[in-house]
Structures are given as structure tokens and as C-alpha cells.
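2024-03-11 09:14:02 INFO receiving multi-entity request
2024-03-11 09:14:02 INFO entity count = two
2024-03-11 09:14:03 INFO echoing inputs for audit
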Amino acid sequence: MTDPLVIFDVALALAIVALAVAALSVRDLFAMIVLFVVFGLLSALAWVRLSAPDVALAEAAIGAGVTGALLLKTLHHLRYVSGTLGQQAAYGVTPLTPVPIGVTLANAIFCGLITLGLAVAYLGAPAAGPGFDALVAEAMPRSGVDHPVTGVLLNFRAYDTLMEVVVLLAAVVAVWQIERGVSDAPAPVLGEVWQGFARLALPATVVVGTYLLWVGAEAPGGAFQGGAVLAAVGLLLLLTRAYVPQPTHRGIARGAFVLGTGVFALVALLVASGGRVAFEYPLEHAKTLILLIEGMVTISIAVTLAALFHGREPVAQTKGGRDDT
Amino acid sequence: MTPDLIYGLCGVAVFGIGLVGALCAQDRLRRVLALKLCSVGAGFLLVVGAWRTPPATPDPVPHALVITGIVVMVSATAVALALIRRLQSLEADDER
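2024-03-11 09:21:47 INFO inference complete, emitting structure
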């Protein structure tokens, strides 16, 4: 007798593969992004089935949600610049050059061979080799938190996480530089339903984001998932024009961008100055320090992701012309 | 048929589809999206590698790696999309 869950798994896996194919083959770019978001959400569901709820939360919030919003924003900009905003379907705006069929075929065969090699390597790999489970389980009582993934992220492998926050910081610096002087596509006017939705959703989203951050110490959740949900608050504020970035807010924004990295590095240095290895938190303060870092990192992530969505740094509105600063 | 086998093959397939898209698609947005598909495929394999037959708990280290990967990928995507916007604006200026 077949386990009903196996049928579910097979159906879900097939749906994920089909959505990936559909996202890359559909002509309308708007449909492509929507299919991609659905793909991300179904992947998150698959990861729940693989008992990885933290990863699923991160993928749903950041991989599907924030990335989808970034893609839609870019599509809107491209359609505005190319003057195709009025058309019903969003076809490619990149000028197409005909490619010989042989080149495409060779590329496809090459990719097929790589994928085949990966599949053979995956099927031939020894199943259930020793992982880090035993090491992590042994060290958990000394980590200051009860949830293994948070323990790994903020304690055992904290260097990785510090670098990850630095990467986010580098991304927002790069985006502000790249977008300097690019004229902004005016955002579409939102209807009254939207405004009402935002009023209802904003407080709920703030609560959910803060809860995710707090609960990360003992259950799935944490700084990245909470930060992404709080970034959604920023997106809603930007889209509803409840908050319009002003040039005078640049200083505050810059402060928020470096807050997470700064506090993270400072804690590491302070711990290291006490004759310990960096990130070897003293046990009695471990939970406080981890929550402090997580809280500050959450603020940084939320503000950085919202800034990445907004694109260029806020500049003074000049009438009619472009403002190259 | 265990979940790790099903989703492992699914991850390999998604990675392959993303690779084809990244090499063969012409539209810039679609290429960025194809690379994102590749990263999700790689994430699938790591999560599958961490999976243990219940009631054993999965290995948390690959989970942390995938979460890091997702955040790095959104940063890279944001920079790539900013470059696309800039490029498009420059091309539109050239045509005028």
C-alpha cells in the first residue's frame, strides 16, 4: 500500500518542476514573476516536509516575497522606461538578437549533461553520512538558546552570519551607487481597497515580525525571518506613500544599515577582549547577547531590504528634470 | 520512495532548468530569475542532505547554510536588478 504522503510528495515535486519550467517559458514577464513567487512558496512547503521550517520561513519571506517584490518593481521600471506601460502584457524589453539554433542546442545539451552528472552523483552518494548533528546536540547546552538552527547561526557559526550581514550592507551600498541619477518610475496609484488593506495588515505584520524574532530562541524563526516580515511593513509604507523617503532621512537610514553589523562586530570584539575566542559568549550572558545581536540585525535587515526595494537613495525632488547628484 | 529521494531529484531538476534558462534566455530579467532557480535547486540538495528519517531531528548546520544562502541571493538579485534598471535607462537615453 502506498503511503498517501508519498503521493503528496511526488505531486508537490512535480508541481515545483513544472512551475520552474513554466516560469522560464511563459512569454509574459508579469506572469513569469507570479509563477516564480508560487514556485518559491511551494518550495517552502517542500522544505517543511523535509522538516526544515526555518529554511521554509526564510524562503517564503525572502526568497519568494522580497525577491518577487524586487522583480515586480524592476519590471515596472523597465516598462516605464521603454514606454510599454499601457500595453496589456509585459513582453521582453531587452532587444533580442537572433541566436543560431545550433548554439541554443549546444547550450541545452551541455546543461543536460551537467544535470545528468549531478543526478548520478546524487544517487550514488552515500546515504545518511555522519553530519554535524551529534556535535551540535552536544554543544547546545552551552549555546544559550534552545533552537539548534539559531544556535548554529548566532553562536557556532556566527562568523558566517556576520559576513552575511556585511553582504547585505554591501548590496545596499552598491544599489545606491548604481542608481545614482537614474530617474524614478512613478509608482502606480493605489486604490482605496489597497489603502484599507495596508491599514489592517500593517499592525498585524509588525506583531508577526517581532514574534518571529523573539520565538527564534526556542522554535523556528529568528532574525532573518523576522527582519524580512518587518521589511514587508516598509514595503507597504512605501507603496501606500504613508512614508516618503526624504533626503534628510539618509543619515538615519545609513545608521540603520550599519547598526546590525556594528553591534555584531562590537560584541565579538568585547567577548574576544575578555580572553576568549570571538563569539565564545560567556554562558550566563549568552542568551542576552544573542537576543541583542538578533534584535539589532533584525532592524538592519528590515531597513536594508526596504531600501533595496526602494532602489536609489532619496534625493530632493526637482521639478521636471533629472537630478544628478 | 522517501521524501529525500523525491525532493533530491526535484532539486537536481530545478537546478538543471535554471542552468538552461541562465544560458539560453535572452531577456535580462529572465536570466536573473533563472539563476535564482539554480540557487533554490542547490538549497533543495542541502536541505535533503540534512534530512534524517523521523523521529530523528535533521542536521541544523546545512539549514543555517541555506538561510545564509537565501539572504546572500536576495542581495545579489537586488544588485543585478539595479544594474538592469540602470542599463535600461542608459539605452533609453541613447535612443532619444
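2024-03-11 09:21:48 INFO post-check: Residues 1-129 of chain A form one domain.
2024-03-11 09:21:48 INFO post-check: The first helix of chain A runs from residue 4 to 25.
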